[in-house]
Amino acid sequence: MSDIQLRHGIFLAPYHPIGESPSTLLRRDIDYCKLWEDLGFDEVWIGEHHSGGMEIISSPELFISAAAEATKRIRFGTGVISLPYHNPLMVANRIAQLDHQTRGRVSFGFGPGLLVGDAHMQAIEPKTTRNRMLEALDVIIRLLKGEEVTEETEWYKLQNARAHLLPYSRPLPEIAVASAGTPSGGHAAGKFGASMLCVAASDSGGFNVLDTNWKIACETAQEYGNTMDRNNLRLVAPIHIAETREQALKNVEWGLDEWGDYYQLVSPNPFGARGKELTKALIDSKRAVIGTPDDAIEMIERMQGKQGEFGVFLAQHVDWADPAATRKSYELYARYVMPHFAKTNRNRVATQDWMIAQNTDFQARRKTASDAAFAQHEAGKAAAQRKAGE
């Protein structure tokens, strides 16, 4: 028996319609966090973006701080902090503070930054971001461990730097690296003993290298004396489900095209389609689930077949459907997808199957017992009549 019990979470980039009020959308996201907690989801990962219009959270730490106060149990992760955009001392201090404020309910996810527009506005060349990410991470971990750091690179300088607070979580909060199609995420995870956050797990390029990147991470970890843990391996994919496939297809007409137009701008592998063609492309390529709970189960099991066991499936939140249909999608996921993987109903099914197998015998015994009760009743009546006639 495996000791890995699949957990379930949300990846909140987020993707929001440009025509709606950002104030309303941010409050709705916090309400979603409360809903996800009530439904039994385990964690929520929050993205960082600074351009493009749809992905409106620029500071995952700020959002998590508010959402953590509105919830009690669910964990949060930065998904991710783009390290090349920040001084590493500032990142270490913010993570340590957030770790204290949430009493250990936060994971520190990091990456090089996805949007070229974000890097361009800061005059950062995208080809430099992966190396800068690794430089910053090395310093951040040392600072969170309590070390004093004096170091100068081409993009930051630290003098006798020391984190103001040591983390609440000991020895460190969970650290997770974003991994997509390239091997850099696996190398970073292995080198630093970090968890892996596979943000493009259902994309054809990302899916094809799931097992390869994990192997790279494990081999690199061994070189550095670390051990990778599948319990902390997370795979991300977009999902919208309804009672029927027809209803799910109708639901996503609300917002799929706006998301598709944005995806065309920021993705290295855009679909170049709209409307029914886009929907068909997403489904046929297995990039997303737009269907029923059974379709969601099939996708996750397909990932398990490719990746092997992993700890958490993160449903990527996408505003493809209106808020009511979106909430319904998460409710259906909690009602049917979660218990499938937890095998929650295993004994209920076994008990019902046993009852069916024993039905003929049980019916006969029930009839015997019923007949005996009637016979006893009639005998009692007869005895009472005899006594009354004496």
TrEMBL record:
UniProt xrefs under PANTHER family: BLL0895 PROTEIN, LUCIFERASE-LIKE MONOOXYGENASE
| Similarity-based family | Belongs to the bacterial luciferase oxidoreductase family.
Query: Is this entry keyworded Flavoprotein?
Result: yes
Among the Pfam families in the record, one is Bac_luciferase
Signal sequence bounds: none
Q: Which UniProt keywords apply?
A: Flavoprotein, Monooxygenase, Oxidoreductase
Broad class of enzyme this protein falls into: oxidoreductase
Q: Which InterPro entries match?
A: Bact_Lucif_Oxidored, Luciferase-like_dom, Luciferase-like_sf
Q: Where is the Luciferase-like domain?
A: 9-303
Q: Which GO terms describe its molecular function?
A: oxidoreductase activity
Q: What is this protein called?
A: LLM class flavin-dependent oxidoreductase
Species classification = Bacteria, Pseudomonadati, Pseudomonadota, Alphaproteobacteria, Rhodobacterales
What Enzyme Commission number(s) apply to this enzyme? 1.-.-.-
